[in-house]
Amino acid sequence: MIESASKYVSLLAVVVGLVMVWLRPGQEDLLKVDTVISSLLKYEAKYVEENKPRIAVGYGACKDLFVTGSHMLANVSFPANPENFLGVGDMEELVRMYGFFFKAGAAAERFVHNPELWDQLLETGLEDPGHRWGLGGNAPVMAARFAREGAKVLLGAKLSPGLAEWIPEGMEVAGGDIDADDVHLIMEYKRNEEWDGVVSPRANRFIIHHDLNNPLISSLEEFKMALPAFNPQLLVVGGLQMMDNFPFKEGERLERILLIRDQMAAMDKDTRVHFEMASFVDESLLAELTEHIIPQADSLGMNEQELPNLHSLLTKGEVTTMADSNPRIAEVLDQMREVYSILSVSKETNRPVTRIHLHTLAYQAILTEKGSPWKNSGAAAVKASLTAHRHVCADKDVKPENSFLIMDDSFSTSKQGGRRVPFINSRPLTCWDEDDLGISICIAPVLVCAQAVQTAGGGDNISAAGLVVQI
Question: Taking residues 199-219, what's their average pLDDT?
């Protein structure tokens, strides 16, 4: 009897020892990620959208040329004085600005003012052995995601015959034709990529272009004519960052913005309107959008750079140069509440904001007004999270070995007086109501792609995936 017990204890010790060896730090992380993936996939499967919502998306389209930043700046040293500029005037400004955002792991987009420099950069990009082409522009990328999720889509964009062939089958397009497409150069870098001893904290991209068509929102008029017959349930407005630092004629930019405002304001109250934020550095442009465009949107989508930018403009009257690429949840929730409190006030000429979607590398946060038409906030956060991984990894399967989490083991709901919420692997989605503001908030972790294939278009895919579940 004692001998049997002794053998049992010895066997148990061996088993425990083997488990402890198996669950070494890397394996523990893998087991945690596997549990989170399983939980998110189960939640996603419960909320399959069977309806086919009608969604109109504007404005513009282009061809994206994806290249590596290291190829574009081969044999160029990391700048001694990296700096942010409003646009690219010469090669030195490009190097200094690319270094500025590379070091921070932040995305940015800038207009190249010098056409000769642009031609040289485009030629260099085409010499990258790994270069690839893709459908570009916020509107077509979001429209393609909506179509992939089963929606009926109307896209407002001017297309060349060649680019029209890249549009998903069944998608309607209004905007007219152009002979040649504008090209945007996507300079990508990997997580932990090294440049003269400077290491990028995350995978991201720096976008440059010399686009002379999309900043004018030239598809607006034909898109407007097609909207009544299409009768959308949701109008999505995006791509307005193309106006940033573009050499407009005097008064031309505001004239186009007011026409977009009128188009948004003309939508029936049963048609919801979403505005997708982007990288804005021209303070006067962001001020015009805040005055004329944002007040006509029920819903706003933005990333961790764009939220503090909007928050700063609304509360301080100025834009931010750079924000934390991995902000704490308590900080962004406080900013989201303040933005909501300012923009949700009903006036005679506006649509009060009832939804804000923040997408970051670590998590998705969706704030909705209680009693608003927006449904399934939890499902939207989960869908957005899984879409983030699938897009960046370019793989529909979410694999534990190609995923990792950077969301904290717990978070506070506010920097002042917030409650601590633990992260539970088997229940990674967290939602709660806040009666003082009359809102609901949902947070879902993002399974960060360990081997990023593409980062451009990530926010557009994520935002669209979250929206389609909530219509």
Answer: 93
- The Cα–Cα gap between 339 and 353 comes to 9
Q: Which two tokens stand for residue 449?
A: 């792609």
What gap in Å lies between CA 154 and CA 170, rounded to an integer? 10
397-411: average pLDDT: 93
- Report yes or no: 400 and 462 within 8 Å, Cβ to Cβ: no
Q: What average pLDDT is seen over the chain?
A: 91
59 preceded by a cis bond (ω within 30 of 0): yes
CA distances from 211 to 40, 109, 208, 219, 413 (A): 40, 12, 9, 14, 42
Torsion of CA 279, 283, 287, 293, to 10 degrees: -30
CA 269, CA 274: separation in Å to the nearest integer? 13
Neighbours of 284 (CB within 10 A): 10
Q: Which pLDDT value is given to residue 161?
A: 85
CB-side neighbour CA atoms (13 Å) of 430: 21
CB 442 within 8 A of CB 378: yes
Q: Helix, strand or coil for residue 274?
A: strand
Beta strand 204-209 pairing with 299-303: unpaired
pLDDT band at 458 (very low <50, low <70, confident <90, very high): confident
Asked whether the beta carbons of 173 and 251 are under 8 A apart, the reply is no
- pLDDT at 303 > cutoff 60: yes
Q: Are 459 and 208 in contact (CB under 8 A)?
A: no
Q: Which pLDDT belongs to residue 321?
A: 67
Q: Comparing C-alpha atoms, which of 133, 230, 212, 218 is closest to residue 172?
A: 230
Q: Do residues 188 and 69 make contact, with C-beta atoms less than 8 angstroms apart?
A: yes
- pTM for the model stands at 0.88
Which whole-number Å values give the CA distances from 122 to 241, 358, 457, in the listed order?
21, 33, 20
